[in-house]
Predict the 3D structure of the following.
Amino acid sequence: MPAAHSPSTPAPLPPTTAGRLSTAARTVAKRPTDTRTEPESTGAEAIVRSLEMLGVTDVFGIPGGAILPTYDTLMDSSRIRHVLVRHEQGAGHAAEGYAAATGRVGVAMATSGPGATNLVTAIMDARFDSVPLLAITGQVPSAALGTDAFQEADIVGITVPITKHSYLVTEASEIPGVIAEAYRLALDGRPGPVLVDITKDAQQGTAPFVWPPEGHESPAVSTAKVSRSQIRRAADEIARAHRPVLYVGGGTVQAGAAAELRELADLVGAPVVTTLMARGILPDSHPLNLGMPGMHGTVPAVLAMQRSDLLVAIGARFDERVTGDRALFAPDARVVHIDIDAAEISKLRHAHVPLVADARTALPELSRTLRSLGEDARADLRAWWSFIEGLRQGYPLGFSPTSDGRIAPQHVIQRIGLLTGPDAIYTAGVGQHQMWAAQFIGFERPRAWLNSGGAGTMGYSIPAAMGAKVAAPDRVVWAIDGDGSFQMTNQELATCALNDIPIKVAVINNSSLGMIRQWQNLFYDRRYSNSDLGSGRDTARIPDFVRLAEAYGCAALRVEDESEIDAAIETALGISDRPVLIDFVVSADAMVWPMVPQGVGNDRIQYARDHEAAFGDGA
């Protein structure tokens, strides 16, 4: 597979890009397409002008020598706000947060060498979670390519496995076409990251600026039709199923198919499970919503899938954190799989009815076909719901008092959600706090919950919250972070303070790498090897998070007693002129329950320690 192609011969879009344009891409398609040829401009000017023409209003990045011509031009733009981050990884995650909160393309910019490689983690993260990200990097002059020049790195070669496409541009005249194609590719089909690496001499060279570029006059609007025969087969499967489950993944969020999903769910009357990446796509308050499936899912969600006779997978990919041991997963279930990405269908679980389609297009067709069959054609689900209601009553989501008398972290997160409300945006790092946030905050709308699902990237939360707040300045944005994740990217608090981005940060401070400690507790005889961080009470308290936040220009509070929790949250909600951080000092012994231990079947779900949920006879 070549590392890049010559933009003068545009590469065909891969199969995963066929089928739809997102809302943001449709907006681009409606713009006037009269060709405009302007006087010669530098390549750097073409980069900025192309972004402006595509409707980009916000860019996250940090300059360096190889991208400096573009930064010099960027200073003159009245349309694009550039947010100067403190680390390139922060730029990438901020662009991800911006994209995840809006569905628009997030743009990150960096220089060559270490600047570009510092973006790699965010690019990989975006690839796993199907986030539309455009990464623009500077490169050493074309004459120096391959010479191990100062700050040279083959970022195209490095990123080919983790992008939808990576481009190397060496001529100023190629820039508008490549930027336009990269932007569209990031959105088309299954969204994802695209990298454009531009040599310094291409930025400094000149060429006429032509917009739209040749071959990009009319962004491709999908004319793909959903297979009627497959829709009918899917409807027939649903109609005769006695124990159906709608298994809804993040692809449904990317498709903007919340209303279409709700219509189908109400029509079928089947239970719905929403994965970690799909929280909020169906309101948690909806009576059909069983919550999150998987390793730390609710008992009703996990066991309903395990007992089902039909799984209707919509924008979901049968990840092992959902299925557990795949050989033991939902053994009696047939599968209807709807996904825009043909490569995902039958990759991990055979699909009896495959539907390569955008959820927003396929679900209304499926609902119409089901209605045409009539209610009498559909199986009676009362016995199925009797089983599920038994699980709901027997295994409600909750938590126990802590063994050391310190604050229960679940209680803190639950109060943040209740006092802030569903209109807010919540981001999380990775670990115990991430799972507790997914469990104990009530999500009532899509794009309110942003986290690193597939890659599990610690350090995601703070910069993602920053990007989300730039994208949605009128919404409250909480970064719920662990003390371990927080220490990986907390320098972006300086970015927030200096750029008037008033995010709110809750550090769930258990003075440890919490999920590591949980596994050490359960599976390694409580041998806590290198998981103590020394940041909590009765430790060296290095760093002191309150003093650190204050040094970054933030308001800061510390909570060590349960009676202080609500007042601290209300104080944070009342501060809007700067970022605010609350250091919640919580118990290190709290664990995430329920839990399916890795490598076993989901019927082995543990409701709490030494309490395996009943399954089978009497369940």
About this structure: The first helix runs from residue 23 to 29. The radius of gyration is 25 Å. Residues 326 and 486 are 33 Å apart (CA to CA). The first strand starts at residue 36 and ends at 42.
